[in-house]
């Protein structure tokens, strides 16, 4: 189908964009449009105004520093995925991005847009959540930084208020002796995952398992983060951690998979991801 | 009455202008306003890949891009892949040679996607080919000959010195 009518606003600066959003509280921000335009085409959404930030050069930024990766609102998936600098500082980001839809979609879709869309089946919200990242929001009234744990409110619902623009997202750098892994299972390549996990394992100075965190997609209304440090123990008992996860989660049945299958699958993916992440942590600790 | 926007963009190397409502999809701009019906529209929500065109050289879904957003950019459609004298591009020749199409509906999207894929990865592995075309659906061929076509196109491009 065709999108419903809307008023199109094309700001050239972030300040202009915030002014337009303030004047159109029911408006939506259009960046890559790879989630928003399907919703419009299927008439599932009909915002009266779209503030198209594609012309705002100052938002098309990717900053990589020792402390982490900061993606501006126009940093497209493909750019972040290919950034060697970003991969060196926080490899989990690129690993997850390779699972986001298809390469052609990643040419347009943006990292911040995917977070703002807050789809619990999407990869990047789980990554931001497991890393304890933040979203920077700005409005005509001011700016604020929203931690991932407070950003995702429900399916397709973020903490962004009307008139607010998510200007950037920050993914903290991987600490020393830390490895990560991303894995998911989908019915078809590029489709929404039945379940997926972003795992982070940090070893202590004696190379025992010090901290284990896993972020999940597709099995809860918001990205679910579980601390598996205790369940895995200092020697890294991944099957025990997976068993703990199976008990803790409460996935739903839908047309694609039963709750029982999702629970089983999530355990299998957890075990795999933790083992991979721990192996990387060990390599990095020995380098 | 909806507001109309005057837009200008480059399509297949030619400066084009149109007056369109904000909600005009790039796919519909190309087909309805500019008469370039080589770009096909299948699902119109980004799944099938038939409407893929090149925007500033990168493949994008024209059904998930607004014409007003594409203003000022350079778009290449399937009509722009062949040489000016009509000689098919190496990718087009490979699809013909390897029977990489049957009904042809998905073909414009595949040709645009593959043209960009080989520009970036001139000698793709089997996995790179599968990943590269994973966002394009074909309901006729079973993909075997499309995959062959991509490898053959890589050979033809290497022979011609890489000129797509």
TrEMBL record, chain A:
Entry keyword Flavoprotein: yes
Stored InterPro entries: CO_DH_flav_C, CO_DH_flav_C_dom_sf, Diverse_Substr_Oxidored, FAD-bd_PCMH, FAD-bd_PCMH-like_sf, FAD-bd_PCMH_sub1, FAD-bd_PCMH_sub2, Mopterin_DH_FAD-bd
Keyword Flavoprotein tagged: yes
Residue ranges of every copy of the FAD-binding PCMH-type domain listed in the record: 1-176
Classification via Gene3D superfamilies: 3.30.465.10, CO dehydrogenase flavoprotein, C-terminal domain, Uridine Diphospho-n-acetylenolpyruvylglucosamine Reductase, domain 2
Keywords, alphabetical: FAD, Flavoprotein, Oxidoreductase
Record's signal peptide: none
Name assigned to this protein: FAD binding domain-containing protein
Automatic annotation (TrEMBL), chain B:
Pfam families, A to Z: Fer2 (PF00111), Fer2_2 (PF01799)
Domain 2Fe-2S ferredoxin-type: residue ranges: 5-81
Keyword vocabulary terms for this entry: 2Fe-2S, Iron, Iron-sulfur, Metal-binding, Oxidoreductase
SUPFAM superfamilies assigned to the protein according to its UniProt record, in alphabetical order: 2Fe-2S ferredoxin-like (SSF54292), CO dehydrogenase ISP C-domain like (SSF47741)
Origin superkingdom: Bacteria
PANTHER family per record: OXIDOREDUCTASE WITH IRON-SULFUR SUBUNIT
Protein name: (2Fe-2S)-binding protein
Natural source organism: Actinomadura violacea
Lineage start: Bacteria, Bacillati, Actinomycetota, Actinomycetes, Streptosporangiales
């Amino acid at each position: 189908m065709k999108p419903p009518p809307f008023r199109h606003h094309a700001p050239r600066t972030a300040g202009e964009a915030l002014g337009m959003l303030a004047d159109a509280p029911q408006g939506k921000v259009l960046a890559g449009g790879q989630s928003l335009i399907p919703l419009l085409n299927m008439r599932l959404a009909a915002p009266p105004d779209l503030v198209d930030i594609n012309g705002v050069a100052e938002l098309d930024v990717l900053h990589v520093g020792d402390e982490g990766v900061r993606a501006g609102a126009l940093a497209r998936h493909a750019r972040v995925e290919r950034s060697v600098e970003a991969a060196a500082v926080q490899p989990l980001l690129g690993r997850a991005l390779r699972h986001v839809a298809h390469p052609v979609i990643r040419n347009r879709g943006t990292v911040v847009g995917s977070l703002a869309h807050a789809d619990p089946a999407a990869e990047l919200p789980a990554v931001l959540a497991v890393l304890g990242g933040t979203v920077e929001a700005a409005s005509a009234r001011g700016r604020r930084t929203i931690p991932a744990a407070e950003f995702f409110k429900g399916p397709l619902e973020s903490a962004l208020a009307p008139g607010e623009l998510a200007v950037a997202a920050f993914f903290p750098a991987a600490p020393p002796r830390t490895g990560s892994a991303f894995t998911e299972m989908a019915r078809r390549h590029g489709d929404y995952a039945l379940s997926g996990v972003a795992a982070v394992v940090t070893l202590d100075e004696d190379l025992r398992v010090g901290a284990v965190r896993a972020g999940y997609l597709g099995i809860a209304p918001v990205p679910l983060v579980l601390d598996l440090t205790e369940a895995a123990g200092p020697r890294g008992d991944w099957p025990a951690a997976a068993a703990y996860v199976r008990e803790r989660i409460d996935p739903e049945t839908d047309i694609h998979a039963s709750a029982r299958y999702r629970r089983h699958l999530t355990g299998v993916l957890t075990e795999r991801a933790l083992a991979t992440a721990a192996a990387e942590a060990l390599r990095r600790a020995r380098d | 009455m909806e507001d109309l926007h005057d837009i200008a963009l480059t399509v297949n190397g030619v400066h084009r202008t149109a007056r369109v409502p904000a909600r005009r999809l790039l796919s519909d701009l190309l087909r309805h306003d500019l008469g370039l019906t080589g770009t096909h529209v299948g699902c119109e929500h980004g799944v099938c890949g038939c409407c893929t065109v090149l925007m500033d050289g990168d493949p994008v879904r024209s059904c998930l891009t607004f014409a007003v957003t594409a203003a000022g950019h350079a778009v290449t459609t399937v009509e722009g892949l062949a040489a000016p004298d009509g000689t098919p591009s190496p990718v087009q020749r490979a699809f013909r040679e390897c029977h990489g199409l049957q009904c042809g509906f998905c073909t414009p999207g595949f040709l645009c996607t593959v043209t960009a894929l080989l520009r970036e990865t001139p000698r793709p592995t089997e996995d790179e080919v599968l990943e590269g075309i994973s966002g394009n659906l074909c309901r006729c061929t079973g993909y075997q000959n499309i995959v062959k076509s991509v490898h053959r196109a890589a050979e033809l491009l290497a022979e011609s010195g890489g000129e797509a």
